[in-house]
# Entry
Amino acid sequence: MRTDTPQIIQLSDYQAPAYWVDTTQLTVSIFAEYTEVKAELRLRANDRYTTLQPIVLHGVGLDLKSLALNGQTVPDYEIVGEELRLPAPAEGEFTLHTVVHIYPTTNTSLEGLYVSGGMYCTQCEAEGFRKITYFPDRPDVLSVFTTRIEAPKEFATLLSNGNPIAAGELADDRHFAEWHDPFPKPAYLFALVAGDLKDVRDEFVTMSGRTIDLRIYVEPHNLHKTEFALESLKKSMVWDEQVYGREYDLDIFMIVAVDHFNMGAMENKGLNIFNSACVLADLETTTDDGFERIEAIVAHEYFHNWSGNRVTCRDWFQLSLKEGFTVFRDAEFTADTHARAVKRMDDVTLLRTSQFAEDAGPMAHPIRPDSYIEINNFYTLTVYEKGAEVVRMLHTLLGAERFRAASDLYFERFDGQAVTTEDFVNCMAEVSGIDLSQFQRWYDQAGTPRLAVTGNYDGAAQTFTLQFSQSCPATPGQPNKAPFHIPVKLGLVGKNSGSDLTFSTRHPGFDSELQVFSLRERDDTLVLEGVSEDAVPSLLRDFSAPVILEYPYTVEDLRRLVSSDSNAFNRWDAMQTLATRTLLAAVQEQAEHGDLQAVLTDAMRDVLQDADLDPAVKARLLRLPGQAYMAEQYKPVDPVALDQVHTALRRHLGQALQAEWIAVFEQTQPSGTYAFEHHQVARRALHSVALSYRIMADQNAWRLAAEMYRAADNMTDQSAALQLWGQVANEEWDNAMAAFYQRWHKDAQMAEQWLSIRASAPRVRVREVELLTEHDGFSWTNPNRVRSVIGGFAMRNPVGFHADNGAGYRFLADSIIRLNSLNPQIAARLCTPFTYWRRYTPEIQAAMQAQLKRILDVETLSKDVYEVVSKSLDTSLA
Ligand code: B3K
Ligand code: ZN
# Structure
């Protein structure tokens, strides 16, 4: 047990900084044993304070060698926790010089300056810069950085933010490079790289005619995996000019790939650093999903140059200001580049499966949290994905044109500043004239709202009346919620005709141009007039708000929507509802289960036979909601029983529609050379879905997967086949897996994929996963390997994880305890499966709680893990 209780940081305690740092000059000298960091900071008192305040700089693990203010040593400084405190200076403007030594080679937290595969690199967001030098490490202190790097020549490439200004030789086989970034930025955007790297180069001419030098730096053996990211970067640059009018600002834009990285990538100004897995790609080893993910992450980090870097966050509570907005921007980029409705289905699936669970659990927080212990725990699905939904709602309410005008105003007004989410919403309100004061609650209230709706047709009056009622469950610290401003995009689908019906309404909350109803009250009634026939309402089209919709649809209504809704997203959503009801009825052994199953089977048959449907949409219509999603729909959950029900339904569908699956499987056989393009991607997705049902219907069909694996010329089909084959894990599968490893283990991305397929294969149990952690391909200090094995097992292998009387839970807890001292951020992330202990049966609850308590007992528990575990166990939050 920790002897202290870590401090809770509150939004309400925010105070403006006492000093600005106008310029920062760093000299970072790399030596084998240590790295020396010399800093020269020009400080200036913030005139918001009438008297000169003490000086506070942050630092963690720094070996202070000297400290001088205006050239004089400072005798009376104090170091308290993460703060270096100096008495108030005599003048409001002064220079601070510090020299510290740091030890990157032993830094396993992967925060600050560390070594990955022989290369020095940095990760400063959120508070990693304080592990490099003493500095006011807070996002509202923006400084102009000049960085000199000195290193042995074996580190041939020396990079930092901004534009290169000088380079040259030094004594002792050393050399240097200097970089200057003219754009003031907070320390979290600082980056530095020193390594033996190779680069590919290209150019981009911006809309005003400036030529930008583009470079991707990698370890030499990865040079052949850079082309796709470079193309993605250029596409992103064009898109941001066209859709947002945003132009790139420096002369050079660099991406560096590193193997050891806690997250996907980081948007450091002019020098993005990427997890290798999120940037390296080639036609042989990358899957369709991989290409789409890489393209989206490259775009996301590039888009941050404006939404995050030019306009940044005042404090870390505002994280969603940059993350929610940037996720919305990258999602729209993907939608414009590929298939809009499909991207929406995938995003909503993620939101419903994982973000809704987070919002219903002990870590629930608003997209702008009001307190935290460790900010790294708040880079969550809520801040990112729900944050993006909140921005999307603004887009829905304003329409594309006014949204663009408001974003122009935002970027212009706040360029070079650190601002709040209110500043963003206020621009939206100012441009549109819409009163968004109630909308602000989306930023401050946690939990997923429920939207209960009923509908009634009056044939004589030709009206369709919708009654709305909203509520939101209590979440930690927020027992009561005020009503949200919910945009409900809607239509009416004729019960007989199946067509979209026209209507009018006198309700002032309905925007008839956008077909969006603004629900602001807890309860409200919307009367639609001139409705020529009885209808099925199609509500929340394109998922216009992140809420749970409850409408008493009959199965006939749902079938009507599946077959006829003009909104492709809502067709899919109706099928999801039908499948969810069927699964629930089976889990709860309800009498109507048989009928529901029959209706679902018929609906799927229609989809299978519909020749006009985009195969990508078809593949998604035919996929059942996942077990993780189902586990949120009822209580208590027995995951093994849920798996049986889920498997039984897939088997039923496989058998009942066997002829159709065979037909689709044959129609979607691969042809031509592999390319990452929509028609092929769609065909491959549908092919795998068909095969998965064939295997459910006939255990011997694993031979088809084996054949598909051997015949495939691409990794999408190979890995899909291996995973499907893995469901019936047999000796042949073990042999194929062993051969796969032999063939690919030198390629880091492939080794990670192999580990993940193994750990998440449904028949794989905890004993085998323990052995995997002793495998050559595994490493406790590489987050990608840890995520593949421990994450793959605990998050993507429900049967294996929950089986064996809690052995899986013990293994996860042991892993967390081990990682706690190596890499607290990764350790805290792996606690997620335990945070949901309350959804399970009493035996599972007890077993998981026991492991949580065991973790909490660790004396050296990091604040990262402490926060997640203590909140999970807190009974007042139940
Ligand atoms: N901003 C970074 C995430 C930093 C994570 C710090 N623990 C990546 C991104 O969202 O673009
Ligand atoms: Zn981001």
